[in-house]
Design brief:
83% helix, 9 helices
Amino acid sequence: MVSLCEYAKQFAGLDDAQLQILHKIYPQISPRLSEVTDAFYAHLAQIPKTHTYLEGRTETLKATHLEWLHELFNSQFDVTYTQKLYNVGHVHVKVNLPVEFMAGSITFMHKELTQIISEVFVNDPSMVIKSIHAISGVLGFSLFVMQESFQSSTLAEELNKFLSITGMSRALFDNLTRSYRNTS
């Protein structure tokens, strides 16, 4: 998990200076985060493909989503947080959430948070730019980790299906895999 955390930070361009910006602006942004969650779920309600995933669960999902939004501004984005996001990707596979929902959601969050940042820091263009860069970094980090988990969990589920259908044991599969790697 350490290597995934560092790799995701590098790929998203997330650094300590950006985390400091997020922590600094959190008090001003925090009261507005529920607006983002409400707008997000109103948006999802307009997309027919999402109805199956929301039915009867919207309030619980909203609470989880709002908690995550707060974490975007007050987390250290360390190994513990990376593990938490990794688990989110795994859960998305378990509920058969289409992978494109994550990217679409992150895009929506970026637009909403950018709007709020622009309003809150309307008189400080430098802070707007720094804040948007920091938000891009944390959202990129989050998407990277969740997609990595999504991909790994999907492959693991496919492997389990294959082993079940063929009757092959995991030990035999692992031995065949090692043998194949050694001949390549």
